[in-house]
Write a structure and sequence with these properties.
This protein is an alpha+beta fold. Helix content is about 40%, strand content about 15%. A hairpin with a 5-residue loop joins strand 1 and strand 2. About 20% of the residues are buried.
């Protein structure tokens, strides 16, 4: 039992008790409660500020020509107003959020303010934490106005006590009552939830990927049996590996057998230490190694028995299987100012900018740079002579690495059509200014707010 005291170790394993200063403890508890109240009030005030920002940028006409590419977007559910797209961009930068996070915030605020008034009122009278209210608002945005009102009436009085399951039930009830056709379609879609997902784009630092699925019971049992059998085979070659790791390897072996592996690994006689790529067959795969030295140079590795490594020796060192085609890309000096007289970047410039900047150069944006637009920081001049930069107009007729940055399509449009401006201070480091004068420094996927 807890006796209201804390303890200190004594010699010989005995524990002594020290009385708690009840007065000090009470002060700390009161201080914590007050800070919690202040924090909750500040969160509610922030939601109010977001609503005020949106109301300043509402447009009644989704096709309004005056938006100059600033396409209105409809966030929240039926009955919420249209707001201008690029105002959310600046709000995201001001709050230090990614664009998807800012869109989610705006969606939740508009949903509560225009469709869940009871919930909105509870947030602002201090009776409900904003995170709880946002969790509910995120689930009602596909409902009709009438159905959302039903959820608001049912949930708002008890929202501070309800868990996620209770909220989901209220949304389901509203869908059945007011949207029977949608409810029927959802039941039909949920009747077969089978799937098998391999996440190839979220790779861990050690080169692993997540797999998730839902199978028929018979398929799941057969798959489990096959993986268990192959994992047992692998134990012969890898006796020290834990079962979980052998099961993970077995999934790959199962796929390769389907593609033509001649026999189980355990049935093969191994005369050399086993490689984790042993027995791999199928189509050739390509791996590109970006080396920051010339293409005909050799690679050196300090401490290796052979200090001079050719690409073939490098392949052996990293245990790259023979069916993988290894390409060593020629020199890419990330600080070099490569120049082209054409409007579009060369392939080498694109690779250079991708490796230099890694992500979209805009504040808080994490889109990988590889497939993004390459923006001319100083605008391309269609009229001037090729290869000439005109400092008086900040327009160019050459395409230089020093004047290129990777931008996702959204931030490219924001820079082109609105008051966003930026400059490259040194290779890969950009200084941005928003339409309302916020300043951010960005570099290789990082953002530093300067205001």
């Amino acid at each position: 039992m807890f006796s209201g005291t804390n303890t200190l170790d004594r010699p010989h394993g005995h524990r002594a008790v020290r009385p708690v200063d009840d007065s000090a403890a009470g002060q700390v508890l009161a201080s914590a409660r007050e800070h919690r109240r202040i924090s909750q009030a500040a969160e509610a005030a922030l939601l109010g500020d977001v609503l005020a920002w949106c109301e300043l940028h509402v447009t009644d006409d989704p096709d309004e020509g005056a938006t100059w590419g600033d396409v209105p977007v409809h966030l929240g559910g039926q009955g919420c107003p249209w707001v201008r797209e690029f105002t959310i961009t600046e709000l995201a930068a001001g709050l230090g959020l990614s664009l998807p996070a800012a869109r989610g915030l705006v969606s939740d605020v508009l949903e509560m303010a225009f469709r869940l008034p009871r919930l909105w009122a509870r947030v602002h009278d201090g009776g409900l934490a904003s995170w709880r209210a946002r969790r509910i608002a995120a689930q009602t945005q596909t409902l009709t106005l009438e159905a959302a009102g039903f959820v608001d009436a049912q949930v708002a009085p008890f929202a501070d006590k309800l868990g996620a399951v209770a909220v989901e039930r209220a949304v389901e009830d509203a869908t059945i009552r007011y949207m029977p056709d949608v409810a029927r379609a959802q039941r039909e879609a949920a009747a077969d939830g089978r799937r098998f997902d391999v996440d190839r784009f979220q790779v861990s630092f050690v080169g692993t990927s997540r797999i998730e699925g839902e199978l028929d019971l018979a398929d799941a049992v057969d798959l489990d049996h096959a993986i268990a059998t192959i994992a047992e085979d692998l134990k012969t070659l890898y006796p020290d590996l834990p079962l979980d790791q052998r099961r993970a390897m077995a999934a790959g072996q199962l796929a390769r057998r389907q593609l033509g592996l001649p026999e189980p690994v355990a049935n093969r006689v191994e005369t050399q230490p086993a490689s984790r790529h042993a027995g791999r067959t199928g189509e050739r795969r390509d791996v590109i190694l970006y080396a920051h030295l010339s293409s005909d140079a050799v690679l050196s590795l300090e401490g290796h028995s052979n200090p001079i490594l050719t690409p073939d020796a490098f392949r052996d060192l990293l245990d790259i299987p023979s069916d993988v085609h290894l390409t060593v890309r020629p020199v890419i000096d990330l600080n070099a100012n490569l120049t082209s007289s054409g409007r579009f970047a060369t392939d080498l410039q694109r690779v250079q900018i991708t490796l230099r900047d890694r992500t979209c150069a805009a504040p808080y944006c994490q889109h990988p740079a590889r497939h993004l637009d390459l923006d001319h920081i100083d605008a391309w001049d269609d009229t001037g002579p090729p290869g000439v930069s005109t400092s008086s107009t900040s327009e160019r007729r050459s395409t230089e690495s020093a004047n290129l940055a990777p931008l996702c399509r959204h931030h490219h449009r924001a820079k082109t059509f609105t008051g966003w401006t930026y400059q490259q201070l040194v290779p890969g480091v950009f200084l941005w200014e928003s339409p309302h004068g916020l300043h951010h420094l960005t570099y290789t996927g990082h953002t530093l707010a300067l205001d």
